[in-house]
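User: Please fill in residues for this 193-position structure.
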């Protein structure tokens, strides 16, 4: 039960980060229940992991990455969306400008339980953050392109990305999702309701 509870919290946290829609995303201001959202993008287009995303973002969904051999998963990915992103996507099938997606990446621990072989989130490896927006707003910033800002952050430093060029560091994993705005929307049932 503890593993399920922890996973549920992770899913809620990731879903909350995905969408900060509309109002002044460049200054990172959006509103969730009347409170200003955390800054996600600075004036030069550099991203960071929002400090309070677990409290304000909505759960988008989760993924289990299978091990190469044997049973279970090697990683668990929990994805959150900024407030308003899910409803906006349901309306017209597009993420609005300013949408923020946060993916928590955990190493997985696998063990036998009464229900069978179970994998659960273990230790946080880092975050992958995407912000919907036009690259022309941040000329010369190689982390922007194809309609998004893209950055990976190691668990030890949520304010400094290790990504240097989205086309080299991030895009390759998202090529199969190009037709759906580079996001694997088929893995998120909440977008289909």
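Assistant: Residues filled in for all 193 positions:
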């Amino acid at each position: 039960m503890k593993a399920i509870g922890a996973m549920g919290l992770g899913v809620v946290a990731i879903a909350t980060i995905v969408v900060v829609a509309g109002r002044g995303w460049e200054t990172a201001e959006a509103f969730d229940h009347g409170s200003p959202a955390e800054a996600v993008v600075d004036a030069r287009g550099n991203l960071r992991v929002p400090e309070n995303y677990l409290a304000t973002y909505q759960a988008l969904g989760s993924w289990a990455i299978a091990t190469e051999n044997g049973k279970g998963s090697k990683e668990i990915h929990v994805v959150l969306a900024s407030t308003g992103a899910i409803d906006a996507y349901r309306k017209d099938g597009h993420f609005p400008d300013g949408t923020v997606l946060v993916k928590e990446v955990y190493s997985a621990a696998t063990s036998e339980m009464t229900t069978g072989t179970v994998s659960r989130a273990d230790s946080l490896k880092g975050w992958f953050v995407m912000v919907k927006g036009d690259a022309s707003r941040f000329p010369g910033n190689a982390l922007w392109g194809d309609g998004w800002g893209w950055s990976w952050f190691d668990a030890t430093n949520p304010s400094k990305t290790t990504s240097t060029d989205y086309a080299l560091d991030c895009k390759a994993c998202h090529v199969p999702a190009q037709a759906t705005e580079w996001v694997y929307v088929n893995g998120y049932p909440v977008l289909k309701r």
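For context: Residues 2-188 form a domain with the Chalcone isomerase fold (CATH 3.50.70.20).
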